[in-house]
Predict the structure.
Amino acid sequence: MSKVLTGKIISIKMQNTVIVEVIRRTPHKLYGKLLKRSKKIKADTNGHEVTIGKSVKIVETKPISKDKHFKVQEIVTERKKI
């Protein structure tokens, strides 16, 4: 099984590559409080038209380059709050 992660695009300065910030919430070992942990992952655009701030779903693939192992699977549509 390949990993499927959801994150927000924070940079589109490279050709065919975006940087996605994936935020996960993990409990503290002793106190149990939920902490935010983030990771910046390089992903291939896979022909999608992307802009900064959009939420995307990325999927793990075979290595595309030295540090690019993910590709954009789809752009996640945000629900509008009423």
Notes: The chain is about 0% helix and 65% strand.
